Amino acid sequence: MRELTTILWDRGTQLSRGTWKRMFFKKSGGLVFIGSHVVINHSYLFSAGKSLIIEDNVYINALSSEGIMIKNNVSIARNCTLICTGVIAQKGKGIIIGNNTGINAGTYLGGQGGIEIGNNVIIGPGVKIFSENHNFSDFNINIKDQGVTRNGVFINDNCWIGAGVTILAGVTIGEGCVIAAGSIVTKTVAPHSIVAGVPGKVLKKRGELLAQQIPV
C-alpha cells in the first residue's frame, strides 16, 4: 500500500501540472503527466497525443518550422533535452515521436534538420541524435561562422537503440533494428540489422545466431 500510495500521489501531482501546461500546447489528445522542473519553450508548437509522460528536469524547445509532435502513449524520462533550433536566424525543422515509444533518461534529440522516430521504439539512456553539422572546409573563416548543413534522421518502427548510442545527421535506421550500446551510427542501416561498434557496423541480421553476446 505504501508503494501504491506513493505512485498515485506522484502521478496525481504530475497530472495536475500536465493539465495546466497542456492548455498552452498546439494540440493535446488526452492526459498529460509532467514532472517537476520541466521546461517547454514555445509550447504553442508542441503537440501531444494520449497518455504523455514527461518526467523531472526535461527541457523542450519546440521553436521550429514544424514544431514537435508526440503521438500516443509516449514516455520521456528524466533529464532529457529536445531542441529544434540552435540559431534563431536559422529555424530548425522539428521532431516527431511515434506511438508507444519510450525515451530513456538523459537522451538528447537535436531536431534542427528533423528527427522522426517511429512506433514502438526503445531509446536507451544517454542516446544522442544529431541532425545538423557545422561546415568547416574554408580555412579562412572561423568554423562557427561557416554555417551548418542539415540532414534528417529517421528511426523506423520497432527498433531498440541501446544506451549511449550516437546517431549522426542523415542516418536512416530500418524497421526492427537493434543498435548495441555505445555505438556511433554514421550510415543508413537496413531493416532487422544488429549494429555495434565505432563506427557502427552490421554484425548480423535478427534471427541469426550470434557468435558472441552483443551488449545492448
Structure description:
This protein is mostly beta strands and about 220 residues long. About 10% of the residues lie in helices and about 30% in strands. The protein is built from one helix and 25 strands. The strands form four sheets. A nine-stranded mixed beta sheet has the order 2-5-8-11-14-19-22-24-25. A seven-stranded parallel beta sheet has the order 1-4-7-10-13-18-21, with no helix packed on it. Strands 3-6-9-12-15-20-23 form a seven-stranded parallel beta sheet, with no helix packed on it. The protein is globular, with a radius of gyration of 18 Å. It starts with a helix and ends in an 11-residue tail after the last strand. The model has no long low-confidence stretch (mean pLDDT about 90).
In terms of topology, how is this protein built?
Layout: H1 2-21, E1 27-28, E2 32-34, E3 39-41, E4 46-48, E5 52-54, E6 59-61, E7 68-70, E8 75-76, E9 81-83, E10 95-97, E11 102-103, E12 108-110, E13 115-117, E14 122-123, E15 128-130, E16 132-134, E17 148-150, E18 153-155, E19 160-161, E20 166-167, E21 172-173, E22 178-179, E23 184-185, E24 193-196, E25 201-205
Parallel strand pairs: 1-4, 2-5, 3-6, 4-7, 5-8, 6-9, 7-10, 8-11, 9-12, 10-13, 11-14, 12-15, 13-18, 14-19, 15-20, 18-21, 19-22, 20-23, 22-24
Antiparallel strand pairs: 16-17, 24-25
